[in-house]
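Quick start: what a row looks like.
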Amino acid sequence: MLKIIFLVLLSGGLPVAMAMAAASLIYLWMNPSSPPFVVIHRMVSGIDSFPLLAVPFFILAGNLMNTSGITHRIYGYALSLVGWLKGGLGHVNVVGSVVFAGMSGTAVADAAGLGTIEVKAMTDHGYDAEFAVGVTAASATLGPIIPPSLPFVIYGMMANVSVGSLFLAGILPGGIMALLMMLTVAYFAHKNGWGGDVLFDWRKFSKALLETLVVIGWPLGIWWLVTEWNAPAQITVMAGLVVLFAADKWFRFQAVLPIMTPVLLIGGMTTGVFTPTEGAIAACVWALVLGLLWYRTLNFKLFVKICLDTVETTATVLFIVAAASIFGWMLTATGVTAAISQWVLGVTDQPWQFLLLANLLMLFVGCFLEPTAAITILVPILLPICLQLGIDPVHFGLVMVLNLMIGLLHPPMGMVLFVLARVAKLSVERTTMAILPWLVPLLGSLLLITYVPAISLWLPRLMATA
């Protein structure tokens, strides 16, 4: 009955969060054994969680990065690094999204922020709007896979899993996804006879390559000094930051400091300097230092606007979490989750078959529900089955988030689809058709990540034993 009420309200055009809360309230009203105020109690309990404090701070950090001109720096860095390849701006699109994913944490922010620049640049250079929209949509899915990630924070809270482990688990799969997307760009470039979009400039390329080496070498150098030379960790990191800022000033780097955001977050969390929640605050401080003090692209008026936008987005996300919490609790209390678990285990006790069924379910649900709501509903249903079948919850969390990100590219609820349709001034139908070829690398990545758990779990296990 609860599911029927929810589907009726949803089909009537009620927003997902409102439909979940209203369905729970109506069901309780029809079954007076539980008082209606249980709805309010469970909704409040659903967001009364310390890890959820990371949500507004990661949103704020992403907004600060997105509106302080840093997206243009990222685009310039990617253009210097890969713009000279065949199908250059397609590769720039993917590389730029990889970098931006380390700051925004959401696919919609990637599509609306960097995607606006990328689609315009590609259409100005003569690319079809459909190709530009397709590669932008596909690369936007990297936002929640490469840390930091808001969906990982929600999943970690619901599944009682380390958010830091989830962040580490997303690094290698994100790299594989980006590689498959760039191979797809190369295929279209070869098929259509596209060349590079900028002339190869050895000076600019060397500078971009140096920036990449700095981003990779800086944390390795800090780790080597601390572990091999027993240097004091805090002093070494502070000295390293001074050297980093000095190098940025001397070489006039485009994007080293923004790219360092996920490096500092992952490093701080794995070494125990701060928790993921505190890491979200550290990301905000880093963004403020860059925007207000270093690049000086932020002012007080713009900062206030960013804060108000963050409050609006946070309120929306947390209301979805609250509504999904009561709905998920009602599913558990009415025995729906137990019934589903028994049915699935009656159909199969093979992990690979369950993962196949779970993927199909999550891909379908992702087309209709916002990722936050979907995670809050699906985790209580699917995670107990995973634990019984011996599937690692960190691995399953990555699979779930990737499925739901692919769902963002499709109607009727695909937010990335609608954002890019507006950006490119295309109809939803044309945008949907433009995205279809890019399901090949995305679904290929999903199969690899689903059935080769080591891709997700190698780095968390390595850091756990280090």
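That is the whole record. The chain has a mean pLDDT of 84. Residues 300-333 form the longest helix (34 residues).
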